[in-house]
Prior knowledge:
alpha+beta, Rossmann fold, D-amino Acid Aminotransferase, Chain A, domain 1, Dna Ligase, domain 1, 5-stranded antiparallel beta sheet, about 25% strand, binds adenosine-5'-triphosphate, binds magnesium ion, D-Ala_lig_Van_CS, D_ala_D_ala
Amino acid sequence: MKKRILLLAGGQSGEHEVSLMSARSVLNALPKDQFDVTPVVISKQGRWLPPTETQRALDSGEAATGGDLVLHRVASAEGYDAVFPLLHGPMGEDGTVQGLLTLAGIPFVGSGVLGSAVSMDKVMTKQVLESAGIPQVAWRLAVRREWQQQPDAVRDRAAGLGFPLFVKPANLGSSVGISKVNTPDELDAALNLAFGLDRRVILEAMTSHKPREVEVGILGNDAPIASPVGELRFAADFYDYETKYTEGRATMHIPAPLPPEVAERVRSVALTAFRALDCAGLARVDFFYVEETGELLLNEVNTMPGFTTTSMYPKLFEAAGLGYSELVTRLVTLALEER
Ligand code: ATP
Ligand code: MG
Ligand code: MG
Ligand code: MG
């Protein structure tokens, strides 16, 4: 019997378009003899689109409006063996959709409510990983109300980390809303941008030198495995949205040319983080490797990483001998596994 899979894509976050790109790849790759896959695109307003509108959104790469309220569709989601919530950012990768599916009793690909919520929020992630003894950059939290009522306190907190520093919405991805702040006079614009996107903002010290950026994939539930380590190289000042999604701006190196001891440390720290955050299914763990000092700092954990056929996560497992189609099949199998 073929398994019926509901593939959710799009969604309300700033990574709507990225999600649709990933969904097209996954739709093509799930073996048709094993799976009967129904895509449902969620509009930017959070409404779930019927089949014809979903197809139109997949073709055009975007759905601004249209569709039904979420609950109506979930009722009809019963009867699916599993859901693949291929959604990035808030209202998708952050535990909200995972909570809905948990309540509906439908197995799904990836981390549950806890792992998704904690990993989505960069501040919560930092706190949990700190208590697991994992090295990270120095950081501070600021909330929107403080920025509105005591802006000087927020400015001082940021300045305490030294310049340049990074200002990021706590719950986003694809570098949306992230600024590298080189001097104090650039700080207000960066904070306004980040607070326009999130109530919580993380202020991060920059690594002591421009870091090498290495990433590793984790696959599995309670007995996870780590992929080979990959590296991203680009000419831009940092890995911003344009660099991520403009063809030819960044190159992927798999395996990353690292001393074997460093690559092993990346894999082992990533597995520790995956467990500490109670992740499941998959995650891409991003690190900064500061060559000058030998420091390896964990940057973040992405519980639903970019998933086109040319994205880092699938490429990492391809290097380990697991092709794209086998990988997505494995993820659905993991979703159906008893935990
Ligand atoms: P993703 O698309 O991987 O989910 P994201 O939006 O969650 O990304 P980050 O990975 O936190 O964003 O940061 C984006 C990029 O900004 C990093 O890849 C790196 O180039 C740069 N960067 C972020 N924080 C720092 C830091 N503390 N020091 C140096 N560079 C940084
Ligand atoms: Mg991220
Ligand atoms: Mg992300
Ligand atoms: Mg990242």
